[in-house]
Design brief:
The chain is mostly helical. It folds into two domains: about 1-70, no CATH class; about 70-128, no CATH class. The chain has helices at about 10-20, 35-50, 50-65, 75-85, 95-105, and strands at about 30-35, 65-70, 110, 125. The strands form two sheets. It has a two-stranded parallel ribbon with strand order 1-2. Helix 2 (about 35-50) packs antiparallel against helix 3 (about 50-65). The longest helix is centred in the first third of the chain and has 15 residues, at about 35-50.
Amino acid sequence: MALHNADDKNHAITKSIFEDIVNEKKYSRLITSDYVIDEAVTTCRVRTKRHDLSVELGEAILKSESILTLKINDQIFTVTWDLYKKYKDIDLSFTDCTNVVLMRIYDINQIFTFDAQFDMFKFLRIPY
C-alpha cells in the first residue's frame, strides 16, 4: 500500500525495498497471500479514495514475477480462525493471522511489514 501512496509515511522505504526485490539485490522473492492482496487493494482504495491506484496496486502484485501468491484453503482458514480467537488481547487482524499460519506452514521467518505485533511470533521484520 505504501508503495502506491506517495503520502504514506513509509512510501520512501517501501519503494527502496521493492526496488531491491525487483532487482534481486537484497531479497530474492516476496511471498504473499490472496487475503493480503484483498486487504492491500481495499485499504489502498479507502485511504487514497482512488480506485485507479488500488487497481494499479492489484495489477502490480498479480503480474509481478517477484511475488508468489499463496492461497488460503479450508484447512488454513480453520487453523487461522483458531489462532485469531486465541489472541483477543493483541491487535491482529484475521489477515495478520493468515500470515502467521502460512509462515509457520512454509517455514518462512522474514516478514515485510511495519506492524510490530509480528515481533511476538519471533519473525524477522523487514525493514526493521
